[in-house]
């Protein structure tokens, strides 16, 4: 047991040393754009395991976020230094100045907005349900009593899914037959495809991407007009910058605004998700 603890401790020290060396935020004060240009790079941390936002293609990180950061760095005249890290602890590493930005797909919450500057939203993360293509037993989200629903454990979609079940029961309906929690969403979608569950609950943007890639297998549960029916509170996703690094957060926000105005954002949304989504015009901070 002691050997295991020591091994973990040594690995942690080595990892911390590597991250400190990799990061470009070596100053003790706020990070400025001039310092980033002097360093010649913007160091962005993510967990490259969330297709289509960010994921590995060989030894390269690709995806919607990757495309956006590449354009931001081009405009700033620096290289994109992309670091793939486990999601757990990634925000703590930002506080420790091991990198400049957390560019993972972050749901904007009041708690996060209190600790970090959350950039303007870059996608819609509100929870929706996906069913098998052509499953006429589910015509709306009100038809879920007696159905087996799957989602990923320990994500906000799980909370939204549980609360919606409670809503159904409060209305005198039976509620789900079962709520199954998976280690990953690909597992849940595989179970949906083979008929072991009836629905998957995940964020809207990711579900749109799944449907775009598998139009014969899945469809989002929608109303009569074809508009996706969403549950839980409106959730938007964005990136995190340290509170004191206002030059950097202002610059990233100006770029997101520009991308909205010149059509870049819509173009990339269609590329990665199959459709463009309207986003809030400024930073979005939900109620507590």
From TrEMBL:
UniProt KW keywords: Signal
InterPro entries tied to this protein: Solute-binding_3/MltF_N
Matching SMART domains: PBPb
Domain Solute-binding protein family 3/N-terminal: 41-276
Signal peptide residues on this chain, from the entry's feature table: 1-21
Pfam families xref list: SBP_bac_3
Domain of life: Bacteria
UniProt protein name: Transporter substrate-binding domain-containing protein
Organism: Hominimerdicola aceti
Lineage: Bacteria, Bacillati, Bacillota, Clostridia, Eubacteriales
